[in-house]
Design goal:
3% helix; 5-stranded antiparallel β-sheet; Neuraminidase
């Protein structure tokens, strides 16, 4: 184990962090609801490609992208895996599990070296030896009792590397494999649409999106991987699944890859409406329990594939196209920062992150989007959607912007994370938004993996 003595630099950073949390992270002149929301750099490095620190004290996850995140019943933030840097500075898939209590990171479980296989034990039985293999581009949910659920991604099963379809539950102490295979690259078994079945299971995939509904059921949509038949090959998916804690049910979409969308009329639900196959989208659940889907990279109705900015709602029966374009590679309309507008809309993008706040607003940050000339780049724009209008809240309308970190622990009007994709996000009990890592630009404009932790709030 590395020595546990702190450098003067680490002590200085810690003192700033503690002061920042003691002050509550708000504006010094106005700590009420009318105070401006600002970014605060809370933890991690302002330079790229930092290795992880797995000490007993003053730990910090290494720079990474494509991790998963969740918030437990006490409000602590959790982070699992992703693709990035281990303790030795080696790059690969990770299976380390971290907890952040608002002040300190703690390494809880998993390996501190990259590319570790999983240990599955007996399906349905928790055990202290059980652990998912190293992976990235997975999805996660919190259920109604606060347990974490983890599905699929790209990484290691019990041995080999590939696309995964294993479903895991973490109860705060032990991992349990609940469904799927410990072998990579498995096709799905769809059964009959709308009918749960013991044999039903989604195919192996990465870069899907997920929801949890008001009944506590888990929902999964799309991604990149396998449909009903391994011989059909891998591709983009638009299948919608529900998991009720026991059985998977295929609810909508196709069991084959690379399917086109059908948009119908904007604002009108329809039995034939369905988003096209895609990956790297965003998802959230509103207070009514409806599922929302935004953007990604995939297929529209005309057969073209590219960056998307279409917004969809699923009410449990029908899909409805709500906003955005049914064409690919659309540039956004920003309007005036802080002002909602009927014509405002984010750029087409994928690999963004999103949050929902206590007022049922969606918040969307970053990703990878078009530049208007056939190329693409990283974004650092922050958008809010109130159910009717989009509002540009922070960041630049230009691509590939460096971050401005300010002083660790101190909010500032000019602070802003650099443009990036494949970050992870949380919302805490105070309604503040949290952002960690991804692949993008540091303060010096260098591109690489990041391990900076940010809070956006008052």
């Amino acid at each position: 184990m590395k020595n546990m003595f702190l450098s003067l630099t680490a002590l200085a950073a810690l003192s700033v962090l503690v002061i920042g949390f003691a002050c509550g992270g708000g504006s010094s002149s106005d700590s009420g609801d009318n105070a401006p929301m600002m970014w605060t750099w809370v933890s991690g490095g302002d330079i790229i490609n930092q290795p992880g620190e797995y000490h007993f004290l003053f730990s910090v996850p290494g720079a990474r992208s494509n991790s998963i995140s969740w918030v437990d019943s006490t409000g602590d933030l959790w982070l699992f895996g992703g693709y990035g840097y281990d303790e030795s500075g080696n790059e690969g898939d990770l299976n380390d599990l971290w907890q952040f209590d608002g002040t300190y990171w703690a390494w809880m479980l998993g390996g501190h070296a990259a590319n570790q296989p999983g240990y599955y034990g007996t399906m349905g039985s928790p055990d202290e030896a059980n652990t998912p293999g190293a992976r990235s581009n997975s999805i996660s949910w919190n259920d109604n009792v606060g347990d974490l659920w983890l599905f699929g991604g790209s990484g290691y099963g019990s041995g080999g590397y590939g696309y995964l379809n294993d479903l895991w539950q973490f109860d705060g102490t032990y991992w349990t494999c609940m469904s799927g295979s410990d072998v990579e690259n498995q096709p799905g078994y769809y059964g009959t649409m709308g009918s749960p079945g013991a044999a039903n299971v989604p195919g192996a995939r990465n870069s899907s999106v997920s929801w949890i509904d008001n009944a506590g059921d888990l929902w999964l949509f799309g991604g990149f991987g396998y449909g009903y038949d391994e011989s059909d090959g891998i591709g983009l998916l638009n299948d919608l699944w529900r998991f009720d804690g026991t059985y998977w049910t295929w609810m909508s979409g196709s069991d084959s890859r690379n399917q086109l969308g059908y948009y119908g009329t904007m604002g009108s639900p329809g039995a034939t409406n369905v988003p096209g196959a895609r990956y790297g989208s965003n998802s959230w659940t509103d207070s009514a329990g409806d599922l929302w889907l935004f953007g990604g990279r995939g297929f529209i109705g005309s057969g073209f594939a590219g960056f998307l900015n279409d917004l969809w709602r699923f009410d449990g029966t029908y899909w409805t196209w709500m906003s955005g374009s049914d064409a690919i590679d659309q540039l956004g309309y920003y309007g005036t920062m802080g002002s909602p507008g009927a014509s405002n809309v984010p750029d087409s993008r994928f690999r963004s992150v999103s949050w929902t706040d206590s007022a049922d607003n969606l918040w969307l940050f970053g990703g990878n989007g078009p530049d208007g000339s056939g190329g693409g780049g990283y974004l650092n724009t922050l958008w809010r959607f109130d159910g009717t209008y989009w509002t540009w809240m922070s960041g630049s309308d230009a691509l590939d912007q460096p971050g401005y970190y300010g002083t660790m622990g101190s909010p500032g009007a000019s602070n802003v994370p650099g443009a990036r994709e494949n970050s992870i996000s949380w919302t805490d009990s105070a309604g503040d938004l949290w952002l960690f890592g991804g692949n993008g630009f540091d303060e010096s404009g260098n591109e690489g993996k990041l391990n900076d932790l940010w809070r956006f709030g008052r």
